[in-house]
Amino acid sequence: MIRMSAPSLIIPALTSLSLLASPVQAIDLTSMSDAERTAFRAEVRAYLLDNPEVIIEAVNLLEERQASAKAQDDMALVAMNADDLFDDGYSWVGGNPEGDITLVEFLDYRCGYCRRAMPEVEKLIAADGNIRLIVKELPILGENSMISSRFAVATKQVAGADAYKDVHDALMALGGDLTDVALRRVADGLGLDTDAIMAQMDSDAVTNEIATTHALAQRLQISGTPSFVLHDEMLRGYLPAEQMAAIVAEKRKK
Q1: In this structure, are residues 180 and 170 in contact, taking their beta carbons and an 8 Å threshold?
Q2: What is the DSSP letter of 25?
Q3: Which has the higher per-residue pLDDT, 50 or 141?
């Protein structure tokens, strides 16, 4: 939710209150005399001092309207970028590929909340059984993030979807600097063609895939990870499985 400072919220709230002060006709503040304006301000101040909860009510209503407007804007962004989100031809697809609901996750392997979200997403997918999961690599937290994503994408391009998932899971659990030795240990441990994957990491194909996802994230105004698109809605940040399941249930009712 976008939050504004207290003064910036109270000013429009007080303006709305002033317009409601006269039940018969709107008040033109610009046509008041100085004395009338002073008296009006005194009345408004006295009312607010007697009823301070009105300010909180007005601020809460304004925040609700802003959140609703932001949600509508996000849905429009999802609709405009639907093909790139749900059928880009290169992102890893898991869960139930024929599921009636699609969950897209933008992640960074060095993001603590992404690591926290991983078991929640897996719990949701396993419990539901009818959700299609798409993973998009969005390395935004420095060099180790980029190395991780290059390694994961190179694995997918060289060894396929199953190998990508294995590497994805390993990278989520991997700590420390991502040296060649560490990456080779991961690939060797999974029985992959390590040399081919390492050679692919700096290829144009890997660079273009990551750059394309970055461009999509910019169009969607995504600035942090994890970020999700659930069906037609943006979920900006970590959510436990239960909350995502409740949203899925609401989507299926529509």
Answers
A1: no
A2: S
A3: 141
